[in-house]
């Protein structure tokens, strides 16, 4: 009989979607974490890369991104803001669900959050991870860290952890990008660049090609890029379909005046010998410039907040690449604490609390709504193998 590690009774048998109400008593806001001073940078990077044998010289290369911002990653303050926004939305709606916050790689750690939950008498947690898509690093690794934290704290069997579904196509996550692309295209047009000379770059974190291929359940048959690439491509199509262009301004039919778009990747960190998802955003900008594109709208569709890989890799490196070609470049905001996003996260929690039937759950692509309980073998890391993970069917 299937049994899910650390799950509530409603999820323990491993259904794809849990349509039974669960009396959760707290929300676990789970994030990546980041350094908060120069002395934290290298220890933080060691945490992130533990078990991968990354040499100190390579860590120093990455460290300069953080050192350029005083050694402080913006992600922790962004999580504090998101936690406060969630608490305010819960209070506005009269929902008594406290929020505890824990990180995978820096203070406060997930184990700190579980100890806090235990001290406050919370035993049923619904986890909201700060990553919307399916892959090892954006879903399964979070689930592994939930399992590790339960073991480290000795709270396995005392605290139960379920998680909300990956929310890549939930309206609350997608709407901020729809708004942002609309505003970005208007800004480009105001600078005199036509839609035909504009390209929309949807960008997300590159991952190893082997991890991409294993993202999502194999039974779905997503192809070489797995669920990870398929989910991003589907969201990009939704965002672009929501854009309108006034034909009176262009003299052409609206459908003929939308800019082209593509999915690109950023923040690659692996050795050159290991294939990662491509093209890199900077290479894509170079190619677009060679093709006569005069403006790019950069959409960080893979990220929920303006953390380091947005501030450095996009706001510094990608904008510099565009500037080198005298291209107009506009970077669209991430969801952050956009009201639609905050409301959407609370709605996702209530889906599980109330056991909302899957037919009544909003999803803007035909890929979702995604699974509540991750499927067997989902998002395998081929190099590390399967480890115990909460909120999913083994392995």
What attributes does this structure have?
single chain; 2 domains; alpha/beta; Rossmann fold; 13 helices; heme biosynthesis; four-stranded parallel sheet; 395 residues
Task: Explain what you see.
With 395 residues, this protein is an alpha/beta fold. It folds into two domains: 26-167 and 337-360, Rossmann fold (3-Layer(aba) Sandwich); 171-331, Rossmann fold (3-Layer(aba) Sandwich). Helices cover 39% and strands 11% of the residues. It contains 13 helices and eight strands. The chain has helices at residues 41-48, 56-67, 75-92, 110-119, 136-153, 171-190, 209-213, 226-241, 247-250, 281-290, 308-311, 313-324, 339-354, and strands at residues 26-31, 99-103, 124-129, 160-163, 198-205, 260-266, 295-299, 328-331. The protein has a four-stranded parallel sheet with strand order 2-1-3-4, sandwiched between helices. A four-stranded parallel sheet has the order 6-5-7-8, with helices on both faces. The radius of gyration is 21 Å and the shape is globular. It starts with 25 loop residues before the first strand and ends in a 41-residue tail after the last helix. 48% of the residues are buried. The model has no long low-confidence stretch (mean pLDDT 95). Residues 248-271 are annotated as: Disordered. Its EC number is 4.99.1.9. Keywords: Cytoplasm, Heme biosynthesis, Iron, Lyase, Metal-binding, Porphyrin biosynthesis. Pathway: Porphyrin-containing compound metabolism; protoheme biosynthesis.
